[in-house]
Amino acid sequence: MIGPMPADRHTRWEVSVVIPFFQRERGILRKAVVSALRQEGIPTPQVIVVDDGSPISADSEVRDLLEEHPRHLVVLRQENGGPGAARNTGIGYARNHARYIAFLDSDDSWEPAHLRTAKRALDGGFDLYFCDAVHRDGKRTVFETRPIPPEECRLVDAEHKLFAFTGDLFWRVLAGRPMQIPAVVYRVGAFPALFRTDLRMAQDHFMFMQVASGSPRTIFSTACNVRLGYGVNNYNSAEWGTPEMLRRIFYDQLCMMDAARQWGGAPRYRPMFRAVTQRHRRDFLNNIISASASARRGEVLPVARRYFKLDPLAVAVLPLALAGRVRTRLQR
Questions:
Q1: How far apart, in whole angstroms, are the C-alpha atoms of residue 170 and residue 158?
Q2: Is the distance from CB of 46 to CB of 15 less than 8 angstroms?
Q3: Alpha helix (H) ranges present in the chain?
Q4: CA 130, CA 132: separation in Å to the nearest integer?
Q5: Would the pLDDT of 100 be above 90?
Q6: According to the model, what pLDDT value does residue 7 have?
Q7: What residues contact 279, with CB distance under 8 A and at least 6 apart?
Q8: How deeply is 1 buried, as exposed, middle or buried, from its count of CB atoms within 10 A (0-12, 13-18, 19+)?
Q9: If DSSP codes are grouped into helix, strand and coil, which group holds residue 157?
Q10: What span, in angstroms and rounded, lies between the C-alpha atoms of 167 and 170?
């Protein structure tokens, strides 16, 4: 159930920030909330923390901030449904009284200029904004690993490093999305879609494809205003040859096959959908071989059954994958 709503719920907000929360380590949430509340150059945003049945309650993590910012900080509570369900709850709470909605994960943080730059960009008539982000290893940025070609953008504001995206956003998301959820801010009403909760570990990618299919007016900043952190993150913490990685690939494949049914009919996108699907299949087979030889092999069969039901062709390709692994070992 969702927790009590504050009396000023219908106050109009320039920006509402949605933070899903599920953590097993104390001290992570506070940094994210503080970075949202202390944005510079704009009125203090509304920050909505959705406690998704977290083992450590959100209330206990930000109790002093709730007292310090009673109008600006809201904690909602619900049974565990995953980050997509938590974000949907936050969106539903915010969309009737916010102009823009921003996303921030509980283990990530923003630079003080993030929302000011986003607001400046969106005020120019755009629907979707995102910026660069520092990877969790602290060594690279998202735009360094997934660059946006110069021919797909147009400089709008040199001071704030703002560029209008002029390419095919759906193609860019499909090829390797350059935006991360904590770097996204959008105009309320531009995107009626919510996150698909059945995709658990791939809902972000599907949402971005769904949004991109509508050809939104998109702007981005090369300023690195987001820092990705470490916490409970089922997607990024999955290691090769583990049941977690098998589950991650299963949801990636489910996401891509559903997306192909909706948008794969266009000749331009068909080869990319095929290539990504084949890569997921290859990665799953290689992982299942490694995971089956590990101490956790008992956890492999349930995931394998679900995957082979989703992608029956993988069963036919499995002997080839096994032969390839044997050949590689013999060569070594």
A1: 26
A2: yes
A3: 28-37, 58-61, 63-68, 83-94, 114-122, 142-145, 169-176, 203-212, 243-263, 270-292, 300-310, 313-331
A4: 7
A5: yes
A6: 39
A7: none
A8: exposed
A9: strand
A10: 9
Taking the C-alpha atoms of residue 111 and residue 115, their distance in angstroms, rounded to an integer, is: 9
Question: Residue 332: how many CB atoms within 10 A of its CB?
Answer: 5
Name residue 13's beta-bridge partners: 98
pLDDT range class, residue 297, cuts 50, 70, 90 = confident
Q: How confident is the model at residue 10 (pLDDT cuts 50, 70, 90)?
A: low
Dist CA 121 CA 115 (whole Å):
10
Residue 276 near residue 256, CB atoms below 8 Å: yes
Indicate the pLDDT class of residue 205, thresholds 50, 70 and 90.
very high
pLDDT in tens, 142-154: 999 999 999 999 9
Cα–Cα distance, 110 to 315 (Å, whole number): 44
What local confidence, expressed as pLDDT, does residue 296 receive? Answer: 83
Q: What is the pLDDT at residue 225? A: 97
Reported residue count of the chain is 332
Dist CA 117 CA 77 (whole Å) = 31
Task: Tell me which residue has tokens 């990877």.
Answer: 135
- Residue 218's beta-bridge partner residues? 128
pTM for the whole structure: 0.90
Report the C-alpha gap between 308 and 281 in whole angstroms: 10
Burial class (CB in 10 A: 0-12, 13-18, 19+), 204: buried
Q: Name the phi and psi angles at 40, rounded to 5.
A: -105, 145
pLDDT at 321: 64
As a whole number of angstroms, the distance between CA 246 and CA 203 comes to: 16
For 54, 180, 236, 289, 322, the CA distances from 319, given in Å and listed in that order, are 42, 37, 29, 11, 5
